[in-house]
Amino acid sequence: MRRGLELAVRADVIFAGATGRFCHPEQAVIGNVTLLGGVYRMAERVGRARAIEWALTSEQVPAQVLEQYGGVNKVVEEATAFAKKLAKGPTRAHAAHKALLRVWAVDGIAAADEVLYDTAAPLLETEDSKGALATAVKAFKAGTPRPPFDYTGR
After folding, report:
1. 102 and 60, same domain (yes or no)
2. Could you give the CA distance from residue 9 to residue 33 in angstroms, rounded to a whole number?
3. Which of 27, 74, 134, 151 is deepest in the core (most CB within 10 A)?
């Protein structure tokens, strides 16, 4: 991905194709910096040392290498299965997790702890949460594994 790396590192999850290559061409090509924050967003994923090395050299890093260092989540042939899995899950809880991680990233653990209850409590009132909890309790009482729950987003 010679173009779009800075957009990709803004995502929560990055899947890369097996032939993918990533780089920050700004340094070598136009003598500039990553203007969308790619260098520090990559540092957040892979660490400062790797991020600065790749930014300074404009090295094209194979997707498999980025996966080793956490720059991408997975190297795959296709991301559709993961997207479908997320869509079938507790999407409101997914959004709550994203909100908590945003607070943590900006203001730290204490701030995230401060908003945790207000973020999580409304989820307990959703149809999805009530249904999933009832299903889990029923399975627990029966001594059986918890079955998958069909979330509706309500």
Report:
1. no
2. 15
3. 151
pLDDT, residue 49, reads 92
**pLDDT average, residue stretch 23-36:** 73
pTM of the entire structure? Answer: 0.64
SS3 call for 22: strand
Question: Does 65 have pLDDT greater than 90?
Answer: yes
Instruction: Domain count for the chain, please give it.
Output: 2
Give the domain range for residue 118. Answer: 89-142
Contact 23, 5 (CB under 8 A): yes
Q: Is the pLDDT of residue 2 over 50?
A: no
State how far Cα 113 lies from the chain centre: 20
Query: Residues 105, 64: one domain?
Result: no
DSSP for 30-98, written as a single string: IS---TTSHHHHHHHHH-HHHHHHHHHHT--EEHHHHHHHTSSSEEES--HHHHHHHHHS-HHHHHHHH
If residue 124 lies in a helix (H) or strand (E), which one and from where to where?
none
In what helix (H) or strand (E) does residue 107 lie, and over which residues does it extend? Answer: helix 91-107
Beta-bridge mates of residue 21: 62
pLDDT at position 3, please?
Answer: 57
Look up residue 21 and give its DSSP letter.
E
Residues 68 and 111 in one domain: no
